[in-house]
Each structure stands twice: as C-alpha cells, then as structure tokens.
C-alpha cells in the first residue's frame, strides 16, 4: 500500500499547480468542474483544516497529561514516601516505551491507517492517565502523622509529650508493615511505573503521523502554516500542565473521603498533600475527548485544492517585485520531489522490517561520523538534560528553597519560564528567516545565546535561603550543635522518631519536628475566618513555655522567589533562541537523502542520553543534600529536611554543567565551520592544472572550455 501512495500523491500535485495558475486569485474551486463524488456530500472529516484543529487539541492534551506529573512530583513523593531519585526515574520512565518504538514510525508511516492509529495511541494515553490516578483509590486515606487508627483526631494526642506513653507503641505498626503494607507500597509504585510506560507507548504515533498526514493532504503552500499553528498550540501544553497542578494541589488529597472531624492542615503546612490524582483524571478525560474524531477521518482524504485567501494575498503583495524569482522557485519545486524520493522515508515503505533494521545502523554510523551533526546533537543533549532536570524538580526546588506552597510554585513556572521559552523559540526562528542566516552565522547565534544564558544564570547561586535551625537536626549558623535549647527538656517524653508534626518557636526561630520534641503537653485551637489555627502550650523546651504555632518557621527570604524565577525565565528565553538555528545546522550538515532519518536519530539520542537519565541524575543530586529522612517500615522514605545551601549549589551546579557543555559544543561547531570555510576558500583560490592549461591557450578556444566547466 505504501508504493501506491507515492504516485497518487504525485498525480494530485501536478494538477494542483496547473489549477492554481489558471484560477488566479479565485477562492475555493467550488464552481469549476471537479470530480463528482466530492461535490454532493462534503464531509467535515475530509477537511485538512478540521484535522489540524483536532490534532492541535490532541497534542495539547497529550503534553498536558505527560507534564502534569512533573508539576506534582513533590506531592507524590510525600504521599507515597519516595526519594527524589525514585521520583526522577518515574518521571523519565515514559521515555522507555517511546524510545523503543519511535524508530519504526518511519517504517510503518505509509502502511497503516494513520488517523486510526493516532486515535488508538490517544486512547492508550488516556488509559495511562486513569492508571496513574489508581493508587489514590486503592490506598488508605492519607494520615499526616503516625497516629493509630483508633484515635479520633489524627494529631491530637499522638504528637504531644505524654509521660504515660510507652516507648514500644510504634512496634505493632512496624510488625504489620513488614508484609502487607510493604507489598501494597510496591504495588502502588509498580502501577505508576506501568502507567508511565503506557503513556510513552501511546504517544509514539501522535506527532509523527499527524504531521505527515497534514503534509500529505494540505496544499503545498498551506502545509508550513498548518504545522506552525500545530506547534504554536502544542507548546501551551506544558504551561497548562503546571497551571492545572497549581489549581489541583490547593485541594486536599482526600477531598473525596474527608474525615468527619475535618483536617487541621493548610497548604502551607509541610505535611499538606494536594489532590495530585485529580489532575490526571481531568487530563485523561481531555485526551479521550480529543481522540474521538480520529476514528472518523479517512485513510486518504482529497488533497487541498486551493491556498488560503489571506496567505495568498500577502504572498502576492510580497512577491510582486520579485516575480521572476518566484517563477524560478516554482520551477525547482517539481525537481525537488525526486530528490526527496531518494531518502529513506520514501524508500522505507519498499523495505521489509529485516531490511530496514539492516539499513538503520549503517545510516546511523554514517550520520554520526559527520562532525557538525555530532557536535550539534551533543549540544542539544546537554540542553535537553538541563530542561528535563529543571522541568521535573524546579517546583520542588522552589518549595524547599523559598518555603512556598506547591500550588504557588507551579503557577509561577506556568506563567513565566514556559511562555518566555516559547517566545525565545519564536525569536530564534524570526532571526534565522529575516537575517537569512547560513550555517556559520547560525552557529554564532547559538554560541551567543548559550553564553548569555550562562551569564544570566550566575546570580542564581547567590539568591536563596539558608536552612533555619531545626532542633536536633540543623544547628544554628555558627552555633554549637545540640538537640534542644534546654538540655534534658524532653527526657520525660517518649517521642517517636517517625513522628512529623513541626512547630516553630517564633522568638528564637527554632523549629521542632513535633510538639513532643518541643516538650509540649497541651493543644489549643483558635478559630479563624478560614481555618482553625493550632497552638501547642506548656512546652518545656521553649522560652516561657509557649504557646508555639503548628507548622514550619516562615522563610526570611521568601520574597526573593520572584526574582529567582524571573532570572530563570530570562535564561530559558535566551537558550531557547538556539532551538531553530541548531535544527538548521543539522539539516544543512547531513546529506539530503539522510535528512529525515537524521532528525529521527537526533530525537532518539536526545531521549536516550538526556530525557531518560537526566531526571534520575538530578534526583540523586537532590537526595545527597538531605539531612533528615523519614523512615517507613525500616526503609528510607521521603526527605523531611534539606541543607538549603547545599541543595542550591548542587542543583544549580548541575544545570551550570550542562549549560557549559552546550556552550563548548557550539564553540567547536563554530571552529569546525570556520575551518571548512577556510579550506573552501583555499581550494577556490588555487587554480587547478586544467585551469592553468586553459590560461595558456588562445582566446577563441578558451570560452568553450570555460562553459563546459
């Protein structure tokens, strides 16, 4: 069926150009004689414009569901007791199924019913979203401390300093968690990893098949416009994912099964867990709705017969002074199609699977031997590694570093860095087009963009908050380490080391991991207009005995979060300018017959070398800065406290490392291109032996020789 599509496409293109010349500036060819079966019953599913609209909405919803996990990564860690390394592996796991299948998309591209396969992939993505929310429904209600189930109030007596409390009280829970609870935890984690794998597999056919379908059946002049609209709408997906995360995380995780007495937590409490699962349900529903029309699109639709009216008028005005150049370009376009037919994308339908697998390594090695292609891909690998780590853990970094809520951190990221990154990509494309940049100047633009990004990022190392004093964990700056301010103040108490219900002494800005560790024996709830404020009294470790409010101490520099995010956004915009020029370097740096597969190899290497390992690397670096781990069933669970200075230096240092690698690669690209240009000038300047003989020959015989050359 693949070989049948090629000639059909050629036959439809030639009359297209002829009809365009004869019609002049007329609109849709509704009045002229056209094939009879298309006139009586025009269907909306035979319209390329409607397919572009459907595909834009589908890719928007698909990127929203794949990016939503990154917006709620810290919440998932707290809910299920995951380390940052495990959550980073979970975020990167959707690339596993995607990478394993993406290579064969070019092989099966013209042999399948592309709209139906896109619809099936979207249905699989929706099922993966439903599967991601399943752990919430099979898990027990979230308990934000270690109170026993028979307690009516979750944190009334469990966190207080009560001398009658026996020390071995937590033992039964430890015994019971060795089998049932631990197995349930592994099942929940396994479900999320399976859902991420299905998400990657389902997203494989969506973008490649959609773009090829638009390009096959749209008018030759309209295809770039449609694809540009598609990417413009699609790029809003990550921003909407963070915005959705900001809204959902303001709701309590068990909003569907609230306890009778309610909860005494607020979103500012470090134990707060938002409704992370609700965003997956909303995103999955959006993907399912967007997938429905694809089962009604035909395998092959009539090729679009006319150019868009406003585009035709603009091009007519712009091209009128250079009519001759337009004619020459139109003459070259039919000659371009045989060249494209020599590429692997056109050859692939004629190959069997075994032949395709045999051809792929040879073309891969031939492409990787090209220095420009290899260096540009390495620079994009460094850039993708930085983006993957930032997109996954920047919300958590802002939460910990500046003591802001998860909801506010997501809203900041959705409103500033992502829109400015999109703007940077657009500016890069406009500069390449307006300035007519060649490969050498594209490399200069990439070098300047990466250098400016590094310079803007340097002040980030000095914008942040140091960890406040936590009794028994973090000593005061320049002070002596000690468990409490008053030695022996918690000796009468039997405090569980696993209990986490922080309180803050506002006079000394010392935080205690629970009221028991502060020696508090009483609890008072003060009614407020919105929520009840909880205070603990009779605290033997606090000057004056309290009262001390529940919750962590407020950060002294939380106002710097806006400045930090603004600098991150400017750096992201500057590095995004290199996106389009780097693609130009790849397309100009390989053979024409290898362009299509070179782009596929580029995306595959980015997934294997950047999008898969980078979240795990960043998560491992974050874990090394933890100073207090929560324990669950004898294993290390979520981190309670980080060393903020160490966290800032290692997280931003890792980002700086990848940005520097990107800069070095673009500098090497510029050096190689300059060397190639010098060699070309040297060859052009040195006369060949044939030219020397021509100079010695008489004038009348010289002209025919030159014309042959």
Structure overview:
- The N terminus and C terminus are likely disordered.
- Among the domains are: 260 residues, MFS general substrate transporter like domains (Growth Hormone, Chain: A, Up-down Bundle), CATH 1.20.1250.20; 207 residues, Growth Hormone, Chain: A, CATH 1.20.1250.
- The chain has a 3-stranded mixed β-sheet with strand order 1-3-2, with no helix packed on it.
- The protein is mostly helical and 709 residues long.
- The two termini are 44 Å apart.
- The chain has 27 helices and 8 strands.
- Helix content is 61%, strand content 5%.
State the total count of DSSP E strands: 8
Radius of gyration: 31 Å
Q: Give the class-level CATH name of the domain at 2-24 and 43-145 and 197-330.
A: Mainly Alpha
Q: Based on helices, strands and strand pairing, what is the structural class? A: mainly alpha
Q: What does the overall shape look like? A: globular
Strand portion, in percent?
Answer: under 5%
Mean pLDDT over all positions: 77
Helix count from the secondary structure assignment: 27
CATH homologous superfamily (4th level) name of the domain at 2-24 and 43-145 and 197-330: MFS general substrate transporter like domains
